[in-house]
């Protein structure tokens, strides 16, 4: 289930197997930035796709290049911002919500984990305004997802709310189109 990678370190990063990631990185540091032959994902991108903080932290300590792009022209930051709850997460939240708000705490925990992931990447120097093959920046994705936690982080890191994607929309345009007035206000103040 999920993605199958041709590079073992990418598969290990995707599956949260720190032992295997460590083994490959120890064998040769070039594996830290190896790109999968199918979609160009690096181990860092693979770990960010799934929100695996320990793997991301390990790869950043090994000086993984945070600005490498895959074949969709996306960096690890694009995936960190796009990280959503899995079906299993939603199922647990729904089932546990009535039980002493455990579901709520699970949701808050997952949101904090995502925020931590994005902070780690920003602190490592990821290019905050990198665009993917459709011209989307991480800020575009955060606006689409109405992520009021990540947008201030991205703006603080100098994300440009006026960059337009291939559809001619800026992050501000997206927020206005989706009627996210608080986000639009944040973006207007930043521009």
Report on this model:
This protein has 191 residues and is mainly α. It folds into 2 domains: 1-127, Serine Threonine Protein Phosphatase 5, Tetratricopeptide repeat (Alpha Horseshoe), CATH 1.25.40.20; 128-190, Ankyrin repeat-containing domain (Serine Threonine Protein Phosphatase 5, Tetratricopeptide repeat), CATH 1.25.40. The protein has helices at residues 8-14, 18-27, 43-50, 53-61, 76-82, 87-96, 102-123, 138-144, 150-156, 171-177, 181-190.
Relative strand content: under 5%
CATH topology of the largest domain: Serine Threonine Protein Phosphatase 5, Tetratricopeptide repeat
Number of domains: 2
What is the residue-averaged pLDDT? 91
Distance between the termini: 42 Å
Query: How would you characterize the largest beta sheet?
Result: none
Bulk shape: globular
Order of helices and strands: HHHHHHHHHHH
CATH superfamily of the largest domain: Ankyrin repeat-containing domain
Determine and state the CATH class of the largest domain. Answer: Mainly Alpha
Number of helical regions? 11
Low-confidence segments, ≥5 residues, pLDDT <50? none
Share of helix, binned: 40-55%
Radius of gyration: 17 Å
What structural category do the secondary elements indicate? mainly alpha
CATH architecture call of the largest domain = Alpha Horseshoe
Number of strands: 0
């Amino acid at each position: 289930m999920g993605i199958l990678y041709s590079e073992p370190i990418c598969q290990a990063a995707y599956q949260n197997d720190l032992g295997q990631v460590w083994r490959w990185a120890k064998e040769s540091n070039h594996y830290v930035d190896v790109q999968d032959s199918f979609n160009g994902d690096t181990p860092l991108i693979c770990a960010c796709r799934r929100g695996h903080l320990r793997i991301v932290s390990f790869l950043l300590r090994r000086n993984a290049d945070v600005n490498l792009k895959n074949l969709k022209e996306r960096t690890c930051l694009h995936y960190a911002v796009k990280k959503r709850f899995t079906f299993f997460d939603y199922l647990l939240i729904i089932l546990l919500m009535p039980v002493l708000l455990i579901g709520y705490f699970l949701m808050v925990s997952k949101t904090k984990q995502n925020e931590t992931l994005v902070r780690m990447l920003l602190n490592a120097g990821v290019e905050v305004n990198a665009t993917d093959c459709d011209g989307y920046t991480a800020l575009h994705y955060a606006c689409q997802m109405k992520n009021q936690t990540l947008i201030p982080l991205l703006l603080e890191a100098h994300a440009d709310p006026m960059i337009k994607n291939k559809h001619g929309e800026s992050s501000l345009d997206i927020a206005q189109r989706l009627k996210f007035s608080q986000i639009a206000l944040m973006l207007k103040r930043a521009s």
